[in-house]
Design goal:
The protein has 283 residues and is an alpha/beta fold. It is built from 9 helices and 11 strands.
Length: 283
Amino acid sequence: MLIGTACSALNPEVPTLTPTWDYTAPTIQPTSALFQIRPTEPVGVNPGQNIPQAASIPANAALPPLVVESSNNTIAKTVQIPLRNGGMIFGQLYESQPVNIEDQLILPRLPGVILLGAPHSEWGELPHHLYSSGYTVLVAEIGVNQDFESFEDVISQFIQLETINPGLIAVIGVREGADQALIGCAGDLRCDAVVLISPVTRDTLVNVLVDYNPRPLYIAASQTDTADYDVAQALARLALGEIRLRLFENSGIGTTLLHNQPDLITDIALWLDEFLVDTSLTP
């Protein structure tokens, strides 16, 4: 039987006169078409790239906000902050320039302030005034639907900047951003001070204030919106730490309050100095 099988392999059957179903398989005969394509690219001589800042941080640590646009005509830089939920937050970053000390350029680590609740254009002079007062400032455009995890992501990446003193952080919020600021800082001990301008949700803020106490709190509101006015007074009564309450009669709400009361900007900056300026480093 083996001999018969071998003979049939050496003498294949003659093709039939009519098409017949049969088993087929690729032959070992080389193809007549020649493709001038390399199967793989050769190994290049470029070893790749290295980012010293990324290599120096601990495992699973956050990276600082990515600068996507900067201009010589403006101090603020446009940055983006990726979130763990797959989203992306854009913002404007004001950070210090290198200082020449004994012929060496050194980046000073300054207290940081995050602004929430309004686009960059609506904050007026506040970001630049804080920057001029010696702060690194981030105007983060966090949507009202973002959760506490997103708030954590913003702070985690903000404090990775080389111009930030991570032990001195404040958050300023207007309207829904004020709610985000207090709710976020109540669950994040990296916040050292909070400024609320026209806070909105009374019951929620009263509940989370227990976790934020006894850290310092600054509240500003106007009778233009009686609900915000009542929220501000309720929070001031329950605050256990340093509290400053600024109430106005009819000066608008949110960032409008900053435009109608210019002294409020200066007062906020001076108040932050009391808690964020490290006097031990002052000569």
